[in-house]
Amino acid sequence: MKSNLDVVNDCDSFPYYDADPQAYTELVSSYYELFTQPKSKPVGYVLPWVVEKMPWDDSLWVVDHDKKQIYPKLTQSKGFDATLRKAREIGAFKVLEKWRNELYTVHRENGLDPVGDPTITVERSGSPLFGVVTYGVHMTTYVNTQEGMKIWVPKRAKGKTYGGLFDNTVAGGIATGEQPLECIVREAAEEASFPEELVRSATKPCGTISYFSFRDKRAGGESGLLQPEVQFVYDMEVSEDVVPKPCDDEVEDFRLWSVDEVQKAISESLFKPNCALLLLDFFIRHGILTAGNEKDYVEIVSRLHRKLPFPTATTM
Amino acid sequence: MKSNLDVVNDCDSFPYYDADPQAYTELVSSYYELFTQPKSKPVGYVLPWVVEKMPWDDSLWVVDHDKKQIYPKLTQSKGFDATLRKAREIGAFKVLEKWRNELYTVHRENGLDPVGDPTITVERSGSPLFGVVTYGVHMTTYVNTQEGMKIWVPKRAKGKTYGGLFDNTVAGGIATGEQPLECIVREAAEEASFPEELVRSATKPCGTISYFSFRDKRAGGESGLLQPEVQFVYDMEVSEDVVPKPCDDEVEDFRLWSVDEVQKAISESLFKPNCALLLLDFFIRHGILTAGNEKDYVEIVSRLHRKLPFPTATTM
C-alpha cells in the first residue's frame, strides 16, 4: 500500500535542487544541455550515453563535449528529423522502434527567434532522447450518483505500454498544431466514443499538472530517459446514462468506480503512474483529499505542479 | 495594465534556481540558514542585516558566522520568544511594532525530533525576520447569477496593511493549534459575518497556493524580508440572498463583482498581491482562464504552487 506521496514520488522522480543542491548539481552537470540557439535557455537534457549513440551529423549540429552543450547549425526541426531517422535506420535506440509519425513541438523561450524555424518539432518517439518537455491532455469523467461520486476508469489494452494498468477516462499526447481542447475532443471520440457535442458542452479545463520523470521499462524502450511533462487537465461531469465505449485499440474496457475503489487501486500501483497524479489533483480540487485527511497535502499540491527547468508552451 | 504573469511575478518574487543557477546561489549563500537541529533541513533564511541587529542570546542560540548557520541551544520556541521580546524591547525591528500576541508554527522536516520542543512556535510579527514558512486560509465566495458568475470582494480598511486594496472574500493566518477548516470558519464569522453552519456546509477545500515573496513597504515594517507562504484554498458558492457584512475592523465593505470586474482590478494592481494569486487559481480551476485565452497558462499554474525550499506542514 503506497501513500499518495509515494505515488507522486514514483512519477515525479527527478530530484529537486533545494532537497540536495550538491547531488542535483552533480546529476544535472553530467547531462548535455540542448539549445535552440546559443543565447537561449536549454530546452532539454541529453544523457551522455544517448549523446554517444546518436548519429549526429556535423552539418546539422554542434556537439560541444567540453561544455556539454548541443546546438543546431541550421534548423532544429531538420536536425531532429534527419538525425532520428538515421538513428532509427541503424537501430541505435529501442524507443525509436515505436516510431509514431507524429510530431511534438519543442517550445522555446518566449520571444526568442529560432534558427530559421518558426515551429521546432521532433518525432514523438524520439522526444525522450532529447529530454524535451512533452504535452498531453487528460480528462476525468465522473457521475454524481445517489451513492456518491463515481469515476469512469479504463483499463489499458494488454499489448500497449503500461498494458493492463488503469488510466484516466480519456488521455493523449498533443501533436504539433493541435490545441489542447481539440485534442481532448479527438481523443474522447477515439478512446471512449464520446460524441463531440457532449465533450464540447460538458468538459471543463481545470489547469495543468506537471512532473519530471525518469522513464522505466514499462514505458517501453530504454530505461532512465528523461521525461518532463505537462498535462492539460479537464473534468467532465456526465449523467448516469452516458457510458464510454472503447473505439480504438488503446483501451480494453471501462468500469464505473467509486472514489474508494479508485483510491485503493492508486495505492496498489494499479494506475499508470502519471494518471494517478491526475486523479490526486482531481481529488484535491473536489475536496476529497484535504488538509484534514492527507498529511502530505501541502507537499503533494506543489509536486503535482512542478515548475520544469525548461521553457514551457506559451501558445500551443 | 499588468498581465497575469506580471501579477504572479509581483508576489512570487524570489528567484528560481533553474532560471539562473549562479545568481540564485549567490543570493541564497548570502543568507544565514536557520535550523531546528544540526542535521535537519533549514526551516528559514535570515538576512545578514537581520542577523546583525538581532539580540541573539548565547545561552539560547549558536550563530555560526563562518558557516552562516543558526541553531537553537535549548528549545527553539523559547529562543524565538525570548529573542523577539528582547528585540522588540530595544526597538531593533519595525515589524515587531505590530506585535500580534499570536503564535505561528514552524514546521520542520517530518519525523525529526526537535530539540526538546514538540511544536516550534514563533510570534507572528517576527516570522519574516526568520524567513520561515507561514500558513493561511483564503476563501472565494461566489454566486452563479443569471448574468454569470459574481464574486464577493472586500476592500481592506484604510488603517490596515495594504489598506484600500481589494482582498479575497475571507482570509487569515493559521495560528498554532488551529486546523485550516476551523480557521476559515472563524475568519468567515469575523470578517464577513457568515454563519458557522453556512460555512461548514457550503465551503469546499480546493488545494493550496504557495509562493515566495520579498516583503515590500505595503506589508509594513522593513522591506526585503523573506516571506515563503502556503495558503489553504477554499471555494464557497452561495445564493444571491447571502450577503457578507464586515464584523471586525479588517474590511471596509463588500462588493459583488463580475469576473470581468475582478480581472480588470487584478490587472490594475488593485488587489493585495497574494489575493490576486488566489483569484488566478480560482479562475483556472473554474475554466475561466484557459490554455486558449491565457498565453502563460502553463507557467502560471506551476508558479501558483511553488515548492518551497523548506519543509512544509504535514499536520497543522
Describe the protein in words:
The structure is a homodimer of 316-residue chains. Chain A is α+β, with helices and mostly antiparallel strands and 316 residues long. The first copy, chain A, has 2 domains: 4-12 and 133-303, Nucleoside Triphosphate Pyrophosphohydrolase, CATH 3.90.79.10; 31-127, no CATH class. Helix content of chain A is 28%, strand content 24%. Chain A has helices at 4-11, 21-28, 48-53, 76-89, 127-130, 180-192, 196-202, 259-267, 273-285, 297-303, and strands spanning 32-34, 44-46, 61-64, 69-72, 103-105, 121-123, 134-145, 148-156, 170-173, 203-214, 226-237, 251-258. In chain A, strands 7, 8, 9, 10, 11 and 12 form a 6-stranded mixed sheet that branches. Chain A has a 4-stranded mixed sheet with strand order 2-1-4-3. A two-stranded antiparallel ribbon of chain A has the order 5-6. In chain A, α1 (4-11) packs across α9 (273-285). The two termini of chain A are 38 Å apart. The mean pLDDT of chain A is 94. At the A-B interface, β10 and α10 of A face β10 and α10 of B.
